[in-house]
Amino acid sequence: MTVAETVPPGDLPDPDEDPAALVTLRDAHVVHKARTGGLFSRDRVYALTGADLTIAAGETVGVVGESGCGKSTLAKVLLGIQRPTSGTVSLRGRNLWEMGAAERRTAVGTGTAMIFQDPSTALNRRMPVRQILRDPLDVHRRGTPEQRTTRVRELMSLVGLPTVLADALPGQLSGGQRQRVAIARALALEPQLVVADEPTSALDVSVRAQILNLLLDLKERLNLSLVFVSHDIQTVRRMSDRVITMYLGRIVEESPAARILGEARHPYTRALFSATPGLLAPIDPIPLVGPVPSATKPPSGCPFRTRCWKADAVCATAMPDFEDAGPAHRYRCHHPVLAGETTRDLVSQSSAAMAAATATSKETP
Ligand SMILES: Nc1ncnc2c1ncn2[C@@H]1O[C@H](COP(=O)(O)OP(=O)(O)O)[C@@H](O)[C@H]1O
Ligand code: SF4
Ligand SMILES: [Mg+2]
């Protein structure tokens, strides 16, 4: 029997998909109903707008942007946890939301995993470590009971947890050990994609580096695709192959991590990274003034225009399309930072624009 005879046509992989792609988002939008607004006309929150993104097998993609810009929403959509309001999510070329619920649960449950910020809430506090790690194997009926027992031991060793902790409850572990359990649990079914959403923010500074190193080591050893979301943008830069910048629900730039400090073309990416300069050449960050817009009322045109020193009338009329800036590098901006412009140049530009705006407002009665 051929594949075409056994699989309904709608379930066949899309021939247009990049064969190296593990997950692909096409024009994905997530719109929530807010608690604000009238009884019958509640405001809408534009959490994710028009996201196009491909994650290749084995790559680490970092996601940066201010709080509330849609990083966690993007992460959940990639993992099939959050259904996009419109647009598609494909896992290995197959549209997740055209699958039946049971098939999607299996595809998502075995192919992807999420590591959350706070392991205390992600782990069942009444289960010992041994059972927490065995649970996904039982649910998805992986191997014989003996093989599951062996796999639990393997997982503990993989994440550096001593076997004596197998009978411990999460409450008896340190924060770092709990996050190791959560990572081991995420890896139990050998997923190809792991999304870590602020995986170290709830941990003591002293154990953060250990957990990050563990994630990097596992990613190499298991050839995982890793999507890494963090407030700590310098860590994101160091950990990632590629960095995605988000602003108000939009992906505004994708850049190879090695280019992001001096060669990012989007003004917001440059402003974001200028705020945490390297110790060798400390300079003031690029100043941003102007109102921070709300996700319930995104500005027309480019969402960054209310704070951008380069904004002009064109920026208010149309959201720029993506422009290519080299391999794996693209940005959406009408007036991008020019090649070779340093952060110091951009600080001067922004300061000059602020001074000019202040002068104009004083002249206008
Ligand atoms: N369930 C929800 N209902 C309403 N608004 C939401 C919901 N989840 C997220 N949001 C809003 O969507 C936007 C993006 O949120 P989120 O993806 O969590 O951002 P980030 O992870 O970058 O901080 C924010 O404005 C947030 O308040
Ligand atoms: S499109 Fe205009 S407002 Fe938006 S980032 Fe570029 S210059 Fe700034
Ligand atoms: Mg978040």
Task: Give a quick set of tags describing it.
single chain; 365 residues; alpha/beta; Rossmann fold; 2 domains; eight-stranded mixed sheet; four-stranded antiparallel sheet; 13 helices; 22% strand; binds adenosine-5'-diphosphate; binds iron/sulfur cluster; binds magnesium ion
Tell me about this structure:
The chain has 365 residues and is an alpha/beta fold. The chain has 2 domains: 3-240, P-loop containing nucleotide triphosphate hydrolases (Rossmann fold); 261-363, no CATH class. It is built from 13 helices and 12 strands. The strands form 2 sheets. The protein has an 8-stranded mixed sheet, sandwiched between helices. A 4-stranded antiparallel sheet has the order 2-1-4-5. A hairpin with a 2-residue loop joins strand 4 and strand 5. Helix 5 packs across helix 6 (145-158) and helix 7 (175-187) runs parallel beside helix 8 (205-222). Iron/sulfur cluster is lined by residues 267, 302, 304-305, 308, 310-311, 315, 320, 333-335.
**Average of the residue pLDDT scores:** 91
Q: What's the overall geometry? A: globular
By CATH, the architecture of the largest domain is named 3-Layer(aba) Sandwich
Bound ligands, named by name, code or SMILES: adenosine-5'-diphosphate, iron/sulfur cluster, magnesium ion
Number of strands: 12
Question: Stretches where pLDDT falls below 50 for ≥5 residues?
Answer: 1-10
CATH superfamily descriptor of the largest domain = P-loop containing nucleotide triphosphate hydrolases
